[in-house]
Amino acid sequence: MSSIDIAKMDLLSVAIIVVIGLVGSVIAKKIKIPDIVLFLLLGISIGPAALNLLNVPADSTMNQLILTIGACFLLFDGGSTLRFAVLKEIWITLLVIATIGVLVTGAVMAAFGVWLGIPVMTAILLGAVTASTDPATLVPIFKQVPIKDRVAQTVMSESALNDAMGAIATFAVVGVVLGAQSGGESFNILTALGDLGWEAGIGLAVGALVGYVAIVLVGHKKLAVFQDFESFVVLMSLIAAYLGADALHASGFMAVFTLGVMFGNKDSFGLPLPHVNQENFERDLGNITLLMRTFIFILLGSQVSFSLLALYWWQGLVLLVVFMFVARPAAVFLCAGPDRNAKWTLKELIFMSWTRETGVIPAALVGILVGMKVPGMDVVGSITFIFILGTILIQAPTTAPLAKKLGLLLEPHQK
Hints:
Blueprint (H helix, E strand, L loop, with lengths): L2 H29 L3 H12 L14 H19 L4 H14 L2 H16 L4 H10 L5 H10 L4 H33 L7 H31 L10 H18 L4 H13 L10 H28 L3 H30 L10 H9 L5 H12 L5 H18 L4 H7 L10
Helix pairs in contact: 1-2, 1-12, 2-12, 3-8, 3-11, 3-12, 3-15, 4-8, 5-6, 5-13, 6-8, 6-16, 7-8, 8-9, 8-15, 9-10, 9-11, 10-11, 12-15, 13-14, 13-16, 15-16
């Protein structure tokens, strides 16, 4: 097949995804459910397993490009929701639960995965992929459900921060898996933690540096030469942060997350945008992140193999129960409970334990790892898909009723 024929097929695939995503977004808004649920289901319906209208191989360049850019934009968007003001009260909880909490969640899932007969390294990879929460789902939920500010900001900020850590942990495990496959060194916990620290720290530094330069170029009184082109600056900054960190063998995901934090807190650096520019920027970013969610989840749904789901459905359901009722509560109570600065109540801890949908970043990671042909991704991908559907269909609709039961809803005069 010629290059022009491939380009035409890719263009048709993009058109199909955009049209289906637009329809799915409208329907999701009408029936008031997270749009990513419909994107997944629509992806399945138009994929090779059903109507065969969309067939983008997981290892194709197009798929990898979309998932990488999509994951970067969604992490940037998640980082932009984190406010420095919130950190003053709950920074200890955020730091611990978004780092150690990710490791606790991953360890619990890996342990139960091994207990169910999943190979050790595959179980560890599963734990890493599914250890982070989902800002793309949680942020819209908390905009619709008026939860008390402290709790809402903590959950949203944690979901944004731990996505980067989950991605770092995943690729650290992938390095070990691929190294073992090629006859490299065996797993060493100290080496892995050292690599994790390097990737996170250097990624954070690169993101902060690129982010500061970017917000100067759009917000400085004299140097804001690109003040009317914020969306383009974000795109170029994302590419620079991701590739810059990657070149230093650090986490591109942590870099783009930190970049988002810098943009979200540009007022704190004395670099605010004019009101009109800020509104336009937020609208553009919202549209781009919606487009990225559309592409990621429709592509993921189209690549679902029902034969694999049939092979691992019972392990997936067992691990889903462990995930919601053991792994997440363990992470919350162990990491947030001892924080004397925040002084969390039992009701707040219970609510945070329940509110942890799995979604965009784990989905993107699955797609990327499938394309990399990482061993064990048939198991990891199938169970991750079960987690995504299970947590979103069960936990998202019950957020408001649980908050009301626990007395965490804002009163009308407090909204």
